[in-house]
Amino acid sequence: MEKVQHLTRSAIRRASTIEMPQQARQNLQNLFINFCLILICLLLICIIVMLL
């Protein structure tokens, strides 16, 4: 268990040091926002269908 935690910590540290281009970060944020919006819309549609 200790080894797994150590590996996880070092992996996170390594991932955080990787420099991401601003454009890539922006694209990722937009993708995440779109994904969330689609999920919310699907949830709303499900609720409306259940209520009818």
TrEMBL record:
NCBIfam families: P_lamban (TIGR01294). It comes from Cavia porcellus. Keywords: Acetylation, Endoplasmic reticulum, Membrane, Mitochondrion, Phosphoprotein, Sarcoplasmic reticulum, Transmembrane, Transmembrane helix. Reversibly inhibits the activity of ATP2A2 in cardiac sarcoplasmic reticulum by decreasing the apparent affinity of the ATPase for Ca(2+). Modulates the contractility of the heart muscle in response to physiological stimuli via its effects on ATP2A2. Modulates calcium re-uptake during muscle relaxation and plays an important role in calcium homeostasis in the heart muscle. The degree of ATP2A2 inhibition depends on the oligomeric state of PLN. The keyword Cell cycle does not apply. It holds the Pfam family Phospholamban. The gene is PLN. Belongs to the phospholamban family. Homopentamer. Can also form heterooligomers with other sarcoplasmic/endoplasmic reticulum calcium ATPase (SERCA) regulators ARLN, ERLN, SLN and STRIT1/DWORF. Monomer. Interacts with HAX1. Interacts as a monomer with ATP2A2; the interaction decreases ATP2A2 Ca(2+) affinity. Interacts with VMP1; VMP1 competes with PLN and SLN to prevent them from forming an inhibitory complex with ATP2A2. Interacts with S100A1 in a Ca(2+)-dependent manner. GO terms for molecular function: ATPase inhibitor activity; protein homodimerization activity; transmembrane transporter binding; transporter inhibitor activity. This is Phospholamban. One of its GO terms (cellular component) is mitochondrial membrane. It is a single-pass membrane protein. GO terms for biological process: acrosome assembly; adenylate cyclase-activating adrenergic receptor signaling pathway involved in heart process; cardiac muscle tissue development; circadian sleep/wake cycle, sleep; locomotor rhythm; muscle cell cellular homeostasis; negative regulation of calcium ion import into sarcoplasmic reticulum; negative regulation of heart rate.
